Amino acid sequence: MAVVPLLSDEELSETARAVFDDIRRVRGTDFVNNFWRALANDPPLLQATWERLKVVMAPGALDPLTKEMIYVAVSAANGCEYCCHSHSASARSKGMTADMHGELLAVIGMAMQTNGIVNALQVPVDEAFKA
Amino acid sequence: MAVVPLLSDEELSETARAVFDDIRRVRGTDFVNNFWRALANDPPLLQATWERLKVVMAPGALDPLTKEMIYVAVSAANGCEYCCHSHSASARSKGMTADMHGELLAVIGMAMQTNGIVNALQVPVDEAFKA
Amino acid sequence: MAVVPLLSDEELSETARAVFDDIRRVRGTDFVNNFWRALANDPPLLQATWERLKVVMAPGALDPLTKEMIYVAVSAANGCEYCCHSHSASARSKGMTADMHGELLAVIGMAMQTNGIVNALQVPVDEAFKA
Amino acid sequence: MAVVPLLSDEELSETARAVFDDIRRVRGTDFVNNFWRALANDPPLLQATWERLKVVMAPGALDPLTKEMIYVAVSAANGCEYCCHSHSASARSKGMTADMHGELLAVIGMAMQTNGIVNALQVPVDEAFKA
Amino acid sequence: MAVVPLLSDEELSETARAVFDDIRRVRGTDFVNNFWRALANDPPLLQATWERLKVVMAPGALDPLTKEMIYVAVSAANGCEYCCHSHSASARSKGMTADMHGELLAVIGMAMQTNGIVNALQVPVDEAFKA
Amino acid sequence: MAVVPLLSDEELSETARAVFDDIRRVRGTDFVNNFWRALANDPPLLQATWERLKVVMAPGALDPLTKEMIYVAVSAANGCEYCCHSHSASARSKGMTADMHGELLAVIGMAMQTNGIVNALQVPVDEAFKA
């Protein structure tokens, strides 16, 4: 259970309802996942988060699938259960194959491993890497 | 300064020297960065880390640039200074443009933001996201 | 389920029972939550943690509600499920309204977001910010 | 040094210049700190971050000083050097005394400590804490 | 539920089956825990992880129980639920008593606490501590 | 530079001076490292931290060197630069050899790696691991 109630469609404020309508329109599905139902308790935060998410995750210099995998990587490093589930599902829906998933996991594992060793050793940054 | 000495080429054990030779051969440069010079204090760890890194970061279902950006994302979430510098430099050398970098940052920021909010709210995972 | 048994009142050592008595007295309720029941497996750790918590969370230069919200913020950043639940409940019991909760979430999200971007960019500290 | 150049006022794009003007206007000082100079490499990210920050950190149900202390708490948990420096400086400028700072540190320390212990023990959430 | 299916013995590829056989042989038990059943979806990652784990956790300059407690400590700091459960169970099976567990928790708590305070204060490293 | 001034012996309050005297007595050296000089700005926090540290790091069911290595492991996972430096130095002074340091790093790296993969996959805890 969440720290706040997950609002049903019937419990939404007017602002929240408009955001839900837009989520449904953009995603082409009636399904609105729990993250938005939790945020709906605070309509301005719901709206700001959704508006920003639409911009950030849109196709651009990086394709949407790459963005989802980067999202999973951050979520794994932060140990965010919900985020790992939801963005892995999203990555799959955007074309992540089992092979790609396997390589994503391998890179996450490698980065975590060297992060831990580098932090433990406090390796100084090479001059060559500085801007 | 590091927690351990950063070994110069003259201070390497035989095993470490062979790893450095391979790093230089694979990367096509004489430059060997501080991470490897720190790990050279423990030749088996140096060797195991390099051998695994070669496999994980090789082209596969994901291209090497995507892998470097995933590496940066994990490192940013973990707050690993050296890793952010070294893998951002590596990503640039593999073709990351300023636009791509900007979008990488935006996704990292978005993921961190929602990770924090989701953790604070402990949003339960939707059934639809489960395998 | 926890990594250790959650001790019932009947299973407490003498030291643990005295701590539970003090928890009940200070909080004015018979309810003792699972954190203390897990710690009760190690009475000296239970006692030291409770004694320190009483001091740290007492009214002082900061009021107890502000302290609870800071606690939630740290717990969200660390992804501690239990801590997010228990300290959000505690903050509500000390007067956190839905509006305050929404703003707490927004600040947590904003801080996480800029933390990730700053880490990824390794922004050097301005001289003006140093003590 | 940062992963990207820190742009001087002379190097700003038109969008970035407008954001810097607004930062100076809102804060009532000519000083623009390094975070914004790093973000200026990506004007849309700069603009979105500043616009959202203005909203999130404005007075509301929580006062600006409480918000800054929550920001420091998240930054400490994430180990973000720049963020700890900049938001501690900001908290001081908004009235955080040495006593308040000491209590902030004590709460951060207490929360980190119990986060670690709770994670190690995987304490299950009490039914009473669920929404 | 996991993000990927947990493969039963009947669903394993040939490579995965060989790894499972080795896990059973080395551990002297028929029980293969969920971590390996999740990794079995990507046999090369399964194999590389198991081969490295065998080397890293083997008796050496540090005894296996000390290694397990270090593993728990990292997992607690990272908030990894599964890892805290599995490596605490493993530490117990290698001789960790309730007293040792209590002291492990106390050290984890102390380290988390000072990590948070040190990060919040950005204490500069003493010259005496540098290699 | 730190977020607060690092107090010299001449700037200490009476309480802080008494703690510094005890640190010098217990450690048998005149050297007092920066962490305590930063905490000295808040004498009650200084005193509480030192009193608890003495208890937690004392010999008990775990020996002091094992405790220092656990401390390093937590600090590496949290990316606490100062803590990695100071507790690695302390571990060396208590007998950590280069071989032991190498194995400590290998376990930290392995744990970080599997933490990241387990979080990304959200592997469910086996019944066998529950208390």
Quickly list its features.
homohexamer, 131 residues, AhpD-like, 2 domains
Our Rg estimate of chain A from Cα atoms comes to: 18 Å
Instruction: Give the domain tally of chain A.
Output: 2
In CATH, what is the class of the largest domain in chain A? Answer: Mainly Alpha
What class would the helix/strand composition of chain A place it in? mainly alpha
The share of residues in helices of chain A is 55-70%
Arithmetic mean of pLDDT of chain A? 96
Largest sheet of chain A: none
Please tally the helical runs of chain A, counting DSSP H or I stretches of 4 or more residues: 6
Give the strand tally of chain A.
Answer: 0
Going by CATH, the architecture of the largest domain in chain A would be: Up-down Bundle
Q: Which band does the percent of strand residues of chain A land in? A: under 5%
Pfam families (chains A, B, C, D, E, F): CMD
Protein name (chains A, B, C, D, E, F): 4-carboxymuconolactone decarboxylase domain/alkylhydroperoxidase AhpD family core domain protein
GO molecular function (chains A, B, C, D, E, F): peroxiredoxin activity
Domain Carboxymuconolactone decarboxylase-like (chains A, B, C, D, E, F): 44-123
List the helices and strands and how they pair.
6 copies of one chain form a homohexamer.
Chain A: H1 14-27, H2 34-39, H3 43-57, H4 64-78, H5 81-93, H6 98-121
Helix pairs in contact in A: 1-3, 4-5, 4-6
